[in-house]
Amino acid sequence: MPAAQIERVAALAERHTVDALGVRVCWRRFGRGGPPLVLLHGGYGNWMHWIRNVEALSAAHELWVPDMPGFGESGALPPEVPRAARLEALVVHLTAALEALLGPEARFGLAGFSFGSLVAMGVAERTRRVRRLALVGPAGHGSGRQREIRLVDWRQADGAAHTRDLLRRNLAELMIAPASDIDALALDIHERACRAARFQSRHFSQSAHLPTALAAFDAPVLGVWGREDATGLAERVASTLGLGTAERPWAVVEGAGHWVQYQRPDEVNDLLLNWFAPSDQA
Q1: Which of 34, 180, 242, 244 fits a 20 to 30 Å CA distance from 218?
Q2: Which residues on adjacent β-strands are paired with residue 37?
Q3: Which residues pair with 17 in a beta bridge?
Q4: Is the pTM of this model over 0.85?
Q5: pLDDT digit of tens for each residue in the chain (282 aa)?
Q6: Measured between alpha carbons, how far is 165 from 182 in angstroms, rounded to an integer?
Q7: Rounded CA gap, 165 and 274, in Å?
Q8: How many other CB atoms sit within 10 Å of the CB of residue 168?
Q9: What kind and span of H or E run contains 147?
Q10: On the CB side of 8, how many CA atoms lie within 13 Å of its CA?
Q11: Helix or strand (DSSP H, E) at 5
């Protein structure tokens, strides 16, 4: 059952709640040994975007996984923050929470999924203490989608069963390909996350901010995509982001869509463990 699966993984974590400049931010820490590694979820998500990764990664890292402000169990941003400034505000509050947990001088690895890649880039710019960065299915690249994505408004559903049907359709459109890989756990995580989301991320995800930000970033960067990721063609996005060197490699995982770390956890875990290897403290 999905609830039991979620409860089992959640029980492995220590839950930390930080008041960050007036916004409550909920974090989960998995593992205690190894260098710190922070994982940021995507839009309309929560920490469970990484549910199939935290056990493997925490074997080598002290893993910190938040519900970002406006998502999951964390508090919302102040309502007076204008739309155009909300990504920057999210980064400010999240960074304050992170520094409260790790200390203001700590160096750490950072991985962002989808919209979380934009947030990760903002945190990296703000702290300048990210030793390595990984962007998984990054948003904000501005190079166009691999195919048209037609999402439906699940809030207009007539009853619980219809709601689940519409959420499954959205998973197939955006997150998971082939659709036959959508299981009960993915659907449960998606529904929980969508119901709790109060931050409108789509505008930022469809921006072209990431290439410029990456050009000014001086630490190693890894890009990871599922071959069937509807949000962008890997080869085209990698070129737009300036990836393809020894310090900025990229990888494609076959048989997976946008939520690649859920669909193919073993492959993505290996990529991230190698990239953030504890022996590499540069």
Answers
A1: 34
A2: 63, 109
A3: 26
A4: yes
A5: 789 999 999 999 999 999 999 999 999 999 988 999 999 999 999 999 999 999 999 999 999 999 999 999 999 999 999 999 999 999 999 999 999 999 989 999 999 999 999 999 999 999 999 999 999 999 999 888 888 889 988 888 788 889 999 999 999 999 999 999 999 999 999 999 999 999 998 889 989 899 999 999 999 999 999 999 999 999 999 999 999 999 999 999 999 999 999 999 999 999 999 999 965 454
A6: 12
A7: 38
A8: 18
A9: none
A10: 9
A11: helix 2-10
Burial of 203-236, coded b for 16+ CB within 10 Å and e otherwise, reads ebbeeebbbebbeebebbbbbbbbbbbbbbbbee
Dist. CA 182–CA 263, nearest whole Å = 9
Alpha-carbon distance of 198 to 74, in angstroms, equals 10
All residues at 6 or more sequence positions from 190 whose CB lies less than 8 Å from its CB, including other chains: 167, 170, 171, 175
Does residue 130 sit in helix, strand or coil?
strand
Q: Which residue bears the tokens 């069963």?
A: 161
